[in-house]
Structures are given as C-alpha cells and as structure tokens.
Amino acid sequence: MKIITVSDIHLGAEKSNEPAFIEFLDSLHEDKKLTDLVLLGDIVDMWHRDASGIFLENLDTIRIIRELQSKIKVHWVAGNHDYHLLRLKNRAPHYHYPFEFSESLELKDGAHTYRFMHGYEFEYGGELEFMKPIMEVYCHVMSDSLLMIAGNFHAKPQERLKDLIEDIQKRALDEVRGKPGQIIVFGHTHQPFINSEENVVNSGSWVDGESPNNTYVELMGGKPKLFTFKGEEIKIRKVIA
Ligand SMILES: [Mn+2]
Fold first, then answer.
1. What distance in angstroms lies between residue 200's CA and the mean position of ligand 1's atoms?
2. Using 50, 70 and 90 to split pLDDT, how confident is the model at 92?
3. Which phi-psi region, left, alpha or beta, contains residue 123 (left: φ > 0; alpha: ψ -120 to 50)?
C-alpha cells in the first residue's frame, strides 16, 4: 500500500497553483506502486468562487482525478472551504457522484492506521459543532459583500493562525498520543511538517506565496515522508510537546 496525500489546493482562489497541481496529478500515472490518493480538503475553494462555477473552471483537474480512479482509489475528505461537498448526497440521493466525500478517513496498512482529518477541527476545538453550519453557509453564499464582512476569517492561514498554530499542532498530536501504530495526517494550516516521532504529519498547500508550497505526503509501511513537488524531500522533523 502506498498512499499520496495532498491538501489545500484552493482551486478557484487567485493564488491557487493549479498548473503545478495538474502536472503533479499527471505524474501520479507513472507511479506503479501507488494504491491510494487522499485529497485532504480545501481542494476547491468555494469561499472564493461560486460553488456551481468552480467545477466548470477546473474541469481539467477533475478529469485527471477521474482518470486516476481507474488505477487507484481516490478519497476526498472535505475541508472548511469545500465543506459543502459533504451535503451533495443529501441534495440529490438519486445521483451517483464520481467521488465519495467524507468528513474524515481511516486507512489501515498492516499494524499501522493512518487517520486523515482536514484540520479545521483542531482550530475550532469546542466550537466545532457551531462552526459546521457556518462553513457550509460560506460555501453557498460566496459574495463580495460577504467577503468584506468576513474580514479576518478569510485572511491567509499563516496570518490568521499565527497565535493558534502551536495549539493546533498539539491538538493534532493528542489524536494519536499513546496510540502506537497510529499516524494523524492533516492540512488546513498551510504549514507542512512531520513531527519528531513521525506520527503527526501536515500536508501543506499548493498556494503561491506560501513557503514551502506544492507539498505532498507519501505514506508507506507506517513511515511518512514529505516532499516538495519537483523539489527535495523535507527531512527536518519538528518537535511538538
Ligand atoms: Mn482549511
């Protein structure tokens, strides 16, 4: 089993690095060992583009992911910016969508369990249930006036989360603390890392201006690796208390 995970492409947002992401997806066709692709949320950005237009504007990307589905399993975990995807099934239960969208995901590989969450859960903490309908509303009623009112809510994650980042990373660690064999993989913060115990992994983003960006996670045999597409493996390990 070889899993590749990416998150936070933010397709539809001005700074999304769509061309590089398409090139990356194309490259996955060559990987004969690959069994699973996990799209870990905020793949499309319905907070910056109307939900109906966004898929028309990104047909190329969707087509490539569909083609990959003939070879590997594709899992799509919803993020806060594509949270509405979880509700598609309720709206049209008779329609067979090409992707299954889930709130979180667990994949087992022998003695190892990989757990995937987008990561807004770690930001919102106790307010999570209150935030879910708000995330959905944001996906629906994207408008310039709402963006103005929202203000800070839409700031770049690195600015918006700068005082919260340590807490978010600790909450992610809490998910797997004292659970041998479990690895938590999340995104949301646009700050890719693997911790020193190699059981907490952040997949980063594909947004211009973030550094590093265009990152992806590879999971094989219980070992996470972090790469920059067309760049180096990121070998630094972050200590989280
Ligand atoms: Mn997010």
1. 17
2. confident
3. alpha
Percent of the chain with pLDDT over 90: 74
Question: What mean pLDDT value characterizes the chain?
Answer: 92
On whether residue 238 sits in a domain, the answer given is: no
CATH number of the domain encompassing residue 189: 3.60.21.10
Distance CA 124, CA 162 (A): 14
pTM over 0.90: yes
* Number of independent structural domains in the chain: 1
- Host domain of residue 106: 2-228
CA of 78 to the centre of ligand 1 (A): 9
Spatial CB neighbours of 118, under 8 Å, sequence gap ≥ 6: 7, 40, 41, 42, 77, 78, 79, 80, 186, 187, 188
Separation of 32 CA from ligand 1 center, angstroms? 30
Is residue 235 situated within a structural domain? no
